[in-house]
Every structure is written in structure tokens, then in C-alpha cells.
Design a protein that fits this description.
The complex is a heterotrimer of chains A (about 160), B (about 675) and C (about 160).
Chain A: H1 2-18, H2 34-58, H3 64-89, H4 93-107, H5 113-126
Helix pairs in contact in A: 2-3, 3-5
Chain B: H1 2-28, H2 32-61, H3 68-73, H4 80-85, H5 91-111, H6 121-142, E1 148-152, E2 155-159, E3 167-169, H7 184-199, H8 201-213, H9 218-250, H10 260-285, H11 289-312, H12 326-347, H13 364-396, E4 400-402, H14 404-424, H15 435-458, H16 464-495, H17 499-509, H18 511-535, E5 538-545, E6 549-552, E7 555-568, E8 571-582, E9 585-590, E10 593-597, E11 602-606, E12 608-611, E13 615-625, E14 630-639, H19 641-659, H20 663-680
Chain C: H1 18-43, E1 45-50, H2 51-56, H3 60-63, E2 66-72, E3 78-80, E4 85-91, E5 97-103, E6 115-122, E7 128-136
Parallel strand pairs in C: 1-2, 5-7
Antiparallel strand pairs in C: 2-4, 2-6, 3-4, 4-5, 6-7
Classes of the chains: A mainly alpha (about 160), B alpha+beta (about 675), C alpha+beta (about 160).
Chain lengths: ~160, ~675, ~160
């Protein structure tokens, strides 16, 4: 009796494992590039950082100047990430994300107004599609491109 | 019935080998059928282990003494609950349990939707099943749960298959369970510990998969986040239960002895705590990638090492309930896994560049780094103290022991600094903080803590070390609470919610942060309990005839009556009723007892405890004369111990709050999915 | 993935770049921990010896607190429950003996233990004054040490009528 049971188990398990070898698998969707994953994560991280920053400032952990400087930095990062997502997708993928995020937030529970505000700011920043973001050298005020390390005009390290 | 069990185990070994290969080859050569088959393999392994566990549990319940495990660990008089939990009281049973729990975790991993991690999953499966191959091998050939006792040439031998000329030996009753293990905390302690230990295999497998596929981006971290905090929580529970058991059962008034087996569970907890924090830095800033990989490898190695320490008795330990030859196998396995993982890490090390540098030294990231150094340092300190006797004997030729004085001496400064970091951290933001503002925010909590510290001083705490420790713990609580309160006010101002609703909303909006703060408060409470009970415990011993009394710290204890030889499960319990009086009023009646267990021939002393928030009164029977006409009682007063257990409980509940899935997370997952579709479209 | 440089918000203050300061700090902390560990270890080790090793080491055991392990000599245990003290004798395979005096409660498993470990010092009279006594449980998997109940069920293989 035991042996019968044991035999059933053995056969059952082997069948279960072998079954997929003889059936056609489901249609595979393409692998997603690691880079995209990273960019979406960067955008989210920057967005989170801004939210936390706003809250921390409200709680008095930062001076006005530190707060403003950090906020600019994170907004730029978010916008850059979205631009790069666009570059990957080639058809306004970044813009699509923003739209859908806004829709999701509206559909789910009402998000605090601060969230939408931040989304709008970021969208505004990257609205200059393809055009350089409004980045300026600290020293002389001349505009520069996102990837630049030194100011073309005065040579200041950026 | 044992046949079904044995067959399941051997088949499981075959399945493990097949699944490892199928997953690896299927991923490499892009053969989706193989990967599907491997997925089924991991489920099949779980089914087979469940069958094996089922067979053993049934055999235990039915007192089938033909199976050696049952005969060695239980007896007919043992209560049913302990008969079942005896499964993990012995070596083969605990290996089986380990493998079963890992198989359940693996099955859950595989049954959820894997589209997000499709590239990683085959390698995750391969890693998990490679580890399972080791355990299945051990269970088949080295330490089988279905072994029997045989009699051959007048000797009894335990093995799976009969030696030549042997006949089966079925005792009429078993050896019984060690009476120290017949306690609810001990029944639950190994499962919780294993759910913790074993659970760390999952993030390890994901890390290895990330290294093997080269997909070193944030995907593997995001998936493992929840799979790290859940095992961490169980490990915390397991450690607490172990301490509580020691307190309730071992009768020496303490709960932690820095025993190698205790340290074996503590080290992965320390490394795991470091890992939980450092992954947050990687998620936010793309830093510490190599460190995180190294840390999860260390954590998992410590898990395996801990299992090895506990089950092989290699370092003289009074906790060692077993002794065996699985030691060499385990050591080889640990060495192999650690080496392979480290080599894998080095081949990918160039791709694990940090995305950015740290922005400011006065920032949350920097303090998280500090936290990591301290926790990893603590793990090293505990590890070194634990293995030093072995190292000294093998390398230096001296046999030495390293006891609690060493561990207490290293723990105090390291954990004190950790408390200080915990006090400051809620008031620093990611990215940076303004120094002046930080000091201003710290001022009020600091001042309140100093005042409370002064109160503690006047209550009699004059020594610097405990005073500092109390101060730091209070500082943590006040500082963290102030951050929670201020956050709630700020939110309430924005959203016009009531205070409780606002606090709830605040926590739900950022569970990891605020759940984390609550966990910190729990830790600080536990720290207060530890300091009080370690530094200021007192005890008195006195021989009393019935009716006589003794005094300790304001309590009067009177030996009132005796209940001899009450049968309970395997044992005969004799307990003495002790009346406890404070200021002339009876506050409790305690029944410390002595149990005699004829099956194993052992005795067990069980304490009776009267616990208040302020202190525990803990009484044991230390000896007796004239058939209990005179009983020697030892009474301890342990201040503040309650806060250790309450703090631990608070920590666990807070962990649930921190780890609970929430709507924002789900929304984020949707956003990623949409982004990917948009790109592919 | 193209690396992007984002404008630095805080310029490095002081003469050391931030990264270096960080690494330096890390080294300091790790160094401090290492120092604490080795210091504590140096001050808190104890010799752990067998009875013959103790004899060989001369008067070490009277100068320092040591741990010594041996077997419990049968019928040598005397317990004074009133004062909560105990005396017993440790013996090893080479018939070295050591009388031990312990102020405290003996562990529950003491009588049945295979090995006893005592921590303390040898006094002038040659008695080991123990401050700690540990007992090691007999191994359950050593078949020669297991007492099996004989079976009284006819048909059981170890049936003894």
C-alpha cells in the first residue's frame, strides 16, 4: 500500500515537472532594458526627495537657502530622468508617464495638493522638449547644457 | 509510512538537482520550456518536503517509535503540542524543517506575478535550488529523519538502511523531550527563528541573480525590500522568544548569556539590520552598490554559519543539545557558497559604480553609513568573540574561553553610539541638513532628556555607564516622538485633519520612515529594560520552613504550602506556594516548582515571576531538605525587565506597520509598468 | 546609460574633498571598534583546561581565574541546601582529582552530566573555589548511553517477557 502511494507521488511529480517541456509557452513580451528601470527609479527618487524636502522645510530642518538649492537640484534630476526616458522611447514616453501618473492620482484617493503641484513644476521644467533646461553658470550666469562640466564662458567648474 | 517519507526525500534531491540545472540552462540558452519546468520543479520540491514533514508529524503524533527521530525525542506521556514540536528538537528534524520553510518561501516567490523580474527569476530559482540540493543531500545521506534503530551483533545502530544482519528495533517508549524544551516559548522559538534565518536566503538569491544577469539596477532591490523586512521581523521575534524562554525556564534570573548558539542568531540579525538601512541609501542615491552586495553575502553566510554553530556543537556550549558529524559538510558548504558569491561579486564589481557621491556629510545618508559601520562592527565583535576560542586553539595552541565580560565590554560602547545615532537621525533629512537648524531641533529633546536623566540620577542611578545608557535611550524616545508629533501637526495644518487622523495619514504616507521611527522607539524601550536588569539586579537566598518569611527590596516572601508530585505530561511537578507581600498587603502568590522527568532522568527548576512595569520579582526553588519541609528559595529582583519584552513587542508591531503593503506602492508599480509599455510601443 | 552631471549644490568645504573625509571617518570608526574589540579580548580571556593540563601548568590556576573541565566523580556530590553551597570532585581519565567548592545552585542536569566545567581559582588548600559551574548533557545519539525501555508487548522486536 505504501509503495503504491509512493509510486503515485513519484509519477505525479515527474509528470508535473516534465509537462512544460512538451507544451508551447505563452507569448513572451520583450525584455525591458535595465536603463529604463533605472531612469524611472531616478525620477521617483527625485520626486520623493522633493516631497520629503518640502515637509522637512516645513518642520524647520533647513534654512531657506539650503532648501531652495536642494529643491532645484532634485527637480532638475527628475526632469532630466524624464528627458532621458523620452530619448529611449522616442515618442514622448516621459510625457506619457506624467499624464498617467496624474490620472492614477486622480483616480485613487485624493492626493494632497502638494503632490500635484510638484508634478506640475516638473512637467513645466521639462516642457522645453529637446531644448536645454534653464541651466546657468553660478559664476557668470551664462547658460550651459545639462552634461557640461565647465562653463564655456568663464571656465567655472559646474 | 516511513517509506513514503524516504522516497519523497530522495525524489526531492533529484528534483533539486534537475531544477537548478534546468533554470540555469533555460535562462542561459533562452529556452522558456525549461524555465517553466524549473518553476514547476520548485513547486514540486515544496510539495515533496511538505509530504515528508506530514509523514514525520503523523509519526510523532501516532508515537511511531520505529522511526528513530520519534523514539529519541518524544515519549507517550508527553503533551501533544510538545510531541509535534519535538520535530525541531533534533538534528534531522531541524534540517528537514529548514528545507521545508525555504521551500515554502520559494514557492511563494515563484507563484506571484513575475513579469517585473522575468530576467532575474530563473537565476533566483537556480540559486535557491542549489542551496536546497545541499539540504536534500544531507537529509538523504547524512542525517535522515526517517532513520530507524537497528540491532546488530548486540549493538544498537541508527541509520536509514539496515546494516548487514540487523533487525529492526522498536522501543516501547521513547526517550522523551528535554524538559527544558517543554515550554510554549521554546515550542515557538525555532519556527520563528527559522522563518527569520531562512527568509534571508531570498534576498541573497535575488542578489546572486542580479550579479549573474548583470541586471544590477534597482529592480532586485525593490523586490527584495519586503522579502528582507519580513525575515528580519521573524528573526527579532525568534530572538525575543529565546530570551524569554531562558528567563522563564533556565532559572538563573537572566535572559541572555552570550552563548555561541545565542550569538549565532544575533549576528545575522545585526548584519540584516545594517542591510535594511543601506538598501535605503542605494534606492535613494544609487550609492553603496558593492557594499550592499557584500553585506547580503555576509548576512547569508552568517545565517549558514549560525545553523552550523547551533547544530554541530563545535564550540563548547551548554546549549548544545546535539553533537554530530554534519559539521564538516556544513563548513564545506558555507565556504563554497561564500567563495562563489564573492567571486561573482568581483566579476561584476566594475558595473557596480555609484551613481552619485554623497551630497553632504551632515545628511541622513551619512548617518545611515555610520549606522552600517556600527552594526557591521558589532557583528564582527560578536563573531570574533564567539570563534576566538576555536581560533586560539587551532592557531595559537591555547585553549581559552571568552565569556560575557568581553561581550558586555564591546557591546556597551557600540550600542551606546548606535542609540546616539538613532536619537539624531529623525531630525536630519536626506540630501542634507543645516547644522544650526539641526542643533536647534535637537535642543528641546536633549534638554528634556537631561532633565529625565537627572530624575534617574536622583532615583539612585549613580554609575556613569548605566546613567549614560538611560539618557541615550530616553533621548531616542523623546527625539523620535517629537518628530512624529511635529510631523503630525504639519500635516494636520495642510490637510485640516484631526490629530489622530493626521498621524495615521502621516504614517501611511511614508510607512518605511515612520514605521522605522516606531521601531526605534521599541528598541530604546528594550534598551532601558536591558540596562536596568543587567546592572541593578539583586538576589537573596534563604532556607525557609513552612510559614517562615524572607525579605528582598521591599517584598516579604512567605513559604506557605507545598503541592507535591503533581503529574504533568512526562513529569512530576512539586511546587511551593509563596505569598508575596508589599507593605503588609498580599500582592501575589507565586508557585516556583521542581519537576522530575523519569524518562530522561532529568530535573528542571521552574521559576515563578511577579512582574510589574517597575521590576520583576523572580523566585526559584534552590534546594530542599526533609522532603520539602525546609525549602531554600532564591529570589531575584530584576528592575525594568518588563520594558525589554514590551519594547520587543512594540518593535514587532511597528515592523508590521512599516512593512504593510500600501496603495502608494501599488500605484508606483503601475507607473513603472506604464512607462515600460510606453517605451516598447 | 549616459552619466549626467548635475550642478553641485554644496561646494566642498575645507581642504579635503568630501569623499576623502568620508573614508577617513569610516576608517576612524572601524579602527575604534577594532581597538575596543582587541582590548576587551585581551582583558577577558580565560584559560580553559583539562585536569591534567592544569596540573602541568603549575600554579597558574591559583594566580588566575581559569575554567577547568572534567568528569564528575560518582557519589562525590554533597549539597548544603541551607547555605546553598556544594562540594564535589572532578576526575579525569588519568585519575587526576580536583575537589571543588561552589557557592550557588548546581544546574539541574548536574548529576547526569558527562562533563562538568567549573570556573574559579585554586585556593591554598588545593580546593578549587568555583564561581560558576556548567554541566554538559549526555549525548542522546550515543547508543551505548541510551537506556531503552524493554518492550512488554508481544510481537515487538525487543519484547522481553
Amino acid at each position: 500500500m505504501e509503495f503504491v502511494l509512493a509510486a503515485i507521488i513519484v509519477i505525479g511529480i515527474i509528470a508535473f515537472i516534465a509537462y512544460p517541456l512538451f507544451t508551447t509557452p505563452r507569448a513572451e513580451t520583450a525584455e525591458t532594458p535595465d536603463a529604463l528601470d533605472g531612469l524611472v527609479a531616478q525620477r521617483d527618487a527625485a520626486y520623493d526627495a522633493i516631497r520629503d524636502l518640502d515637509f522637512d522645510f516645513q518642520l524647520g530642518k533647513l534654512s531657506q537657502s539650503d532648501y531652495a538649492a536642494l529643491r532645484e537640484k532634485y527637480k532638475t534630476r527628475a526632469a532630466l530622468a524624464l528627458q532621458q526616458i523620452d530619448a529611449l522611447g522616442g515618442n514622448g514616453a516621459g510625457k506619457q508617464i506624467e499624464k498617467q501618473v496624474a490620472q492614477l492620482r486622480a483616480a485613487k484617493h485624493a492626493a494632497p495638493p502638494a503632490d500635484d503641484e510638484i508634478e506640475r513644476e516638473i512637467a513645466h521644467l521639462r516642457a522645453g522638449k529637446g531644448a536645454a533646461l534653464d541651466l546657468r553658470c553660478r559664476n557668470c550666469g551664462a547658460p550651459h547644457r545639462a552634461g557640461d562640466a565647465f562653463c564655456a564662458k568663464c571656465g567655472n567648474k559646474l | 509510512m516511513a517509506t513514503i517519507g524516504t522516497v519523497s526525500i530522495f525524489l526531492a534531491l533529484v528534483v533539486a538537482v534537475y531544477t537548478t540545472l534546468a533554470a540555469a540552462i533555460g535562462a542561459r540558452r533562452r529556452i522558456p520550456e525549461l524555465i517553466s519546468s524549473a518553476r514547476n520543479g520548485i513547486l514540486a520540491y515544496a510539495v515533496l518536503m511538505t509530504i515528508a514533514i506530514g509523514v514525520i508529524v503523523f509519526a510523532l503524533y501516532a508515537h511511531d517509535f520505529s522511526i528513530a527521530l520519534v523514539a529519541n525525542s518524544t515519549s507517550r506521556e508527553l503533551q501533544t503540542i510538545y510531541t509535534i514540536t519535538a520535530l525541531w528538537s533534533n538534528q534531522a528534524g531541524s534540517l528537514l524543517f529548514w528545507s521545508w520553510i525555504l521551500s515554502l518561501y520559494s514557492a511563494v516567490i515563484v507563484l506571484r506575478k513575475w513579469e517585473r523580474d522575468r530576467d532575474l527569476m530563473p537565476y533566483v530559482i537556480a540559486t535557491l535550488m542549489a542551496i536546497q540540493t545541499f539540504f536534500a543531500f544531507m537529509l538523504s545521506f547524512v542525517s535522515s529523519p526517517f532513520a530507524h534503530w537497528w540491532v546488530v551483533k548486540g549493538q544498537t545502530v541508527m541509520s536509514l538502511f539496515p546494516p548487514a544482519g540487523a533487525r529492526l528495533f522498536v522501543p516501547s517508549d521513547g526517550q522523551g523531550l528535554n524538559p527544558l524544551l517543554q515550554h510554549p516559548a521554546m515550542a515557538m522559538h525555532p519556527p520563528m527563528l527559522y522563518l527569520g534565518y531562512v527568509g534571508f536566503t531570498i534576498p541573497f538569491a535575488f542578489a546572486m541573480a542580479a550579479l549573474m544577469t548583470g541586471r544590477l539596477g534597482p529592480a532586485w532591490l525593490r523586490t527584495t525590500r519586503r522579502w528582507t523586512i519580513v525575515p528580519w521581523m521573524f528573526l527579532s521575534i525568534g530572538l525575543m522568544l529565546g530570551g524569554r524562554w531562558a528567563y522563564d525556564v533556565l532559572g538563573w534570573g537572566g535572559y541572555w548569556g552570550w552563548d555561541p548558539v545565542e550569538n549565532a542568531a544575533f549576528m545575522p540579525w545585526l548584519a540584516g539590520t545594517a542591510f535594511l538601512h543601506s538598501v535605503m541609501v542605494q534606492e535613494r542615491k544609487g550609492m553603496l552598490k558593492v557594499w550592499n552586495m557584500g553585506l547580503i553575502i555576509i548576512t547569508f553566510s552568517l545565517v549558514l554559519f549560525g545553523t552550523f554553530l547551533t547544530r554541530s556543537g563545535v564550540i563548547t556550549s551548554v546549549h548544545s543539545f546535539t553533537e554530530s558529524d554534519i559539521g564538516i559538510w556544513f563548513l564545506t558548504f558555507i565556504a563554497g557558497v561564500t567563495l562563489a558569491a564573492t567571486m561573482l561579486l568581483f566579476t561584476r564589481i566594475k558595473e557596480l559604480k555609484s551613481e552619485r557621491d554623497i551630497d553632504a556629510l551632515l545628511s541622513r545618508e551619512a548617518f545611515f553609513l555610520l549606522n552600517n559601520l556600527l552594526f557591521v562592527g558589532a557583528a564582527f565583535a560578536v563573531l570574533w568573540g564567539t570563534i576566538y576560542p576555536l581560533f586560539s586553539e587551532l592557531v595559537l595552541g591555547n585553549k581559552l574561553t571568552v565569556g560575557p565580560p568581553y561581550f558586555n565590554q564591546v557591546a556597551a560602547p557600540i550600542f551606546g553610539t548606535i542609540l546616539l545615532v538613532m536619537a539624531i537621525i529623525p531630525l536630519i533629512g536626506w540630501g542634507g541638513a543645516t547644522g544650526a537648524k539641526l542643533l536647534r531641533k535637537l535642543a528641546l529633546p536633549f534638554a528634556i532628556s537631561v532633565v529625565l536623566g537627572a530624575v534617574v540620577f536622583t532615583l539612585g542611578v549613580r554609575d556613569l555607564v548605566p546613567l549614560t545608557a538611560y539618557f541615550l535611550a530616553l533621548f531616542v524616545i523623546i527625539s523620535t516622538a517629537s518628530e512624529l508629533i511635529q510631523g503630525t501637526w504639519a500635516r494636520a495644518k495642510n490637510t485640516h485633519e484631526s490629530f489622530p487622523t493626521a498621524m495615521r495619514g502621516l504614517i501611511e504616507r511614508n510607512r518605511r520612515r515612520y514605521g522605522g521611527y516606531l521601531i526605534h522607539i521599541g528598541v530604546a524601550m528594550a534598551a532601558i529594560g536591558i540596562v536596568g536588569s543587567q546592572v541593578y539586579a539583586t538576589d537573596t537566598t534563604r532556607a525557609l520552613k513552612q510559614g517562615e518569611s524572607m525579605e528582598i527590596r521591599g517584598y516579604t516572601l512567605t513559604y506557605e504550602s507545598l503541592s507535591p508530585d503533581f503529574p504533568s505530561g512526562e513529569g512530576q511537578i512539586t511546587s511551593a506556594a509563596v505569598g508575596v507581600f508589599q507593605n503588609g498587603k498580599r500582592v501575589a502568590t507565586l508557585s516556583p516548582s521542581r519537576g522530575f522527568y523519569p524518562n530522561s532522568g532529568e530535573t528542571a527548576t521552574t521559576p515563578a515571576i511577579y512582574s510589574t512595569a517597575q521590576q520583576d520579582l523572580y523566585v526559584i526553588i534552590a534546594g530542599w531538605e526533609d522532603n520539602f519541609a525546609t525549602v531554600t528559595f532564591r529570589a531575584y529582583v530584576n528592575p525594568l525587565v518588563f520594558w525589554l519584552w514590551f519594547g520587543g513587542f512594540f518593535m514587532v508591531v511597528s515592523t508590521l506597520i512599516a512593512a504593510w503593503p500600501d496603495a502608494r506602492e501599488e500605484a508606483r508599480v503601475r507607473v513603472e509598468g506604464l512607462a515600460k509599455e510606453a517605451v516598447r510601443a | 546609460m549616459a552619466t549626467v552631471s548635475v550642478p553641485q549644490v554644496q561646494t566642498d568645504k575645507g581642504f579635503l574633498p568630501r569623499q576623502t573625509k568620508l573614508l577617513l571617518g569610516a576608517f576612524v570608526i572601524l579602527g575604534a571598534i577594532g581597538f575596543i574589540v582587541f582590548n576587551a579580548l585581551a582583558g577577558n580571556q580565560q584559560y580553559f583546561m583539562t585536569l591534567s593540563e592544569m596540573k602541568a601548568k603549575g600554579d597558574l590556576a591559583s594566580r588566575e581565574t581559569v575554567r577547568v573541565g572534567g568528569n564528575l566523580m560518582a557519589n562525590s556530590t554533597k549539597i548544603d541546601t541551607r547555605n546553598v553551597t556544594a562540594q564535589f570532585t572532578l576526575i579525569d581519565d588519568q585519575n587526576n582529582v580536583l575537589p571543588v567548592y561552589y557557592k550557588g545552585v548546581l544546574p539541574d542536569t548536574f548529576e547526569k552530566s558527562t562533563q562538568v566545567i567549573a570556573e574559579g581559582r585554586v585556593d591554598q588548600g588545593g580546593t578549587f573555589q568555583a564561581s560558576l559551574v556548567l554541566a554538559k548533557c549526555p549525548s542522546k545519539y550515543d547508543p551505548s548511553k541510551i537506556d531503552w525501555y524493554p518492550s512488554n508487548q508481544p510481537g515487538d522486536l525487543n519484547y522481553q517477557p
